[in-house]
Write a structure and sequence with these properties.
This protein has 6 helices and 10 strands. Strands 2, 3, 4, 5, 6, 7, 8, 9 and 10 form a 9-stranded mixed beta sheet that branches. Strand 5, helix 5 and strand 6 form a beta-alpha-beta unit. The termini are close together.
């Protein structure tokens, strides 16, 4: 494994955020995004990873994080490349013991292993970033299973995006992995459905999984999945890859 760890580059344009996302948030977060943010709040309210330190991956300015959520942790470390988003996150969470790290854990296929070593005994939350950033050299499920099996982690992430309005908008749940077509049928009933597949369906391959719709613009819909895993003990002598 290379010794030099990739560092986050400071930039305002990024697949999972940047100025485009900031402008959309200013326009839509209090109206169009409110139902999705309420669903994220419900997911996080029920998530109890059992650690005092939380690592946020790609939180942007924390628009989707419910008020008071970060106060549940004694320490929060955010990995966020957008300097404006970092400023916004700090302003939104004035009472949180918040710090920032420049570790880029999504840059290559060893990034999650470096993350695990840098932050043992910590919970990890991927904030709608997996799927916006492509998995290096494989699938995010494979990388997470290989490198983060010893960590408690949670992730909400885009499964698909489409311009076709769904026929059903209520949230859905699956106890175990299922085919993507089966998940889509919970929201779209028949006909042609053109989608962008973000490569994150059934993340972690364990379940249960929860699904909600995010109308990100008046014409664009994302199907978002919630998946999480409790920390599992490693066999003696095992390493993180």
């Amino acid at each position: 494994m290379p010794d030099a760890s990739p560092r986050l580059r400071h930039h305002l344009l990024h697949p999972s955020g940047g100025l485009v996302y900031l402008l959309r948030a200013l326009r839509y977060r209090n109206r169009l995004w409110a139902p999705f943010h309420a669903q994220v709040a419900a997911w996080l309210e029920g998530w109890n990873p059992g650690h005092d330190r939380l690592i946020l991956i790609g939180p942007n300015a924390g628009h989707a994080l419910p008020p008071g959520f970060l106060d549940r942790f004694q320490q929060v470390v955010a990995l966020e490349p957008d300097p404006l988003a970092r400023l916004g996150l700090r302003r939104r969470t004035p009472g949180t013991r918040l710090s920032f790290s420049s570790l880029d854990c999504l840059a290559d296929d060893h990034g999650l292993a470096r993350l695990a070593r840098a932050y043992p005994d910590s919970a990890i939350l991927f904030c709608n970033v997996l799927g916006q950033v492509d998995a290096p050299g494989g699938r995010w499920s494979d990388l997470i299973l290989h490198h983060l099996s010893g960590h408690a982690w949670g992730s909400y992430h885009d499964v698909i995006s489409t311009r076709r309005q769904p026929e059903r908008q209520a949230s859905a749940h699956a106890l175990r992995p299922e085919r993507l077509e089966a998940t889509l049928s919970r929201f779209w009933s028949g006909g042609e459905l053109a989608v962008v597949d973000h490569g994150t369906h059934c993340l972690g391959e364990q379940g249960p999984f929860s699904y909600a719709l995010w109308q990100i613009t008046p014409k664009d819909w994302h199907l978002v999945e919630w998946a999480c895993q409790a920390a599992m003990k490693r066999p003696a002598g095992a390493t993180g890859g």
